[in-house]
Amino acid sequence: MNTTNRVLNRAFVLVIGLLALGLGAVAVALVAVPDFLRGWAQTAPSVTGALSTVLADTALAGTGTSWVPLAGLAAAALLVLALAVFIARQGRGRTHRLIAAAPAEDGSTIVDSAVAEQMLTADLRERAEFDAVAVSTHEVHGAPVLKVSAAVRRGVAARDAITVIERSVHGLDSVLGAEIPVLVQLNGGLGTRRSGRARRRPSASTVARHPIANPTILTHPKEKERSL
Q1: Which of the two ends of the chain, N or C, has the fewest CB atoms closer than 10 A to its terminal CB?
Q2: What is the pLDDT of residue 90?
Q3: pLDDT band at 64 (very low <50, low <70, confident <90, very high)
């Protein structure tokens, strides 16, 4: 739901974790394993000599300074810049405005997303079908979309959980006087994938014409509902 690819996020975390694990393992081995420390002491002079040779061979004309450290600093600066951009992109796609009616003579009507989020969360958390429920609002293709993430209790079928959420969402639609597109992600229970299953209701907005993660469409009771 945000602008950063989930696979890229996990790959980045994995690489950083492996690097930190490797550095930590080397540090522990230097302190706790005498043989490793002796081997490093024997290898260090040759490594240092090789580095000195490389620096001497790559010296800039007339300066006596190698370009290798400069290249390393440039690479480090690019890495820091990439990390800054990566961090800045996190959490994007969220919106705090759910409904913004066109201005009229009496003024304009704006519904904050927190209203819908709190109403749905309070209603669904009272249901025995769920262990945990989280609701957030995202902007997708210029339209607000509610995302309902629910942890289903053991033994509860996905169809039953979806029915409960659908009834709660219909009640919200009645209160707001508008139909808001909803993305439902289930975890746990019976018939749900480990990574969760996404379902979405159709809407006249742009969002309905751009499927998100191949969701199954949920319709109002008067419309035909597609099967799982």
Answers
A1: C
A2: 62
A3: confident
3-class DSSP assignment, residue 147 = strand
Residue among 187, 92, 195 nearest 133 (CA): 187
Of 12-26, 148-162, 187-201, minimum mean pLDDT range: 187-201
Domain locations along the chain: 6-89, 97-217
Mean pLDDT of 75-103: 78
In the 8-state DSSP scheme, what is residue 180? P
Stated as kind and residue range, the H or E segment containing 176 is helix 158-176
Structure token pair of residue 216: 């199954």
What SS3 state is found at 218?
Answer: coil
Q: How far apart are CA 192 and CA 152, in angstroms?
A: 9
DSSP-derived secondary structure letter, 65: -
Positive or negative, the Cα torsion across 73, 78, 79, 85?
positive
Backbone angles phi, psi at 225, to 5 degrees: -95, 135
CATH of 97-217, one of 3.80.30, 3.30.565, 2.30.29, 3.30.300: 3.30.300
- Would you say 212 and 156 are in contact if contact means Cβ atoms under 8 Å apart? no
Q: Could you tell me the end-to-end alpha-carbon distance of the chain, in angstroms, rounded to an integer?
A: 22
Averaged pLDDT, 138-149: 85
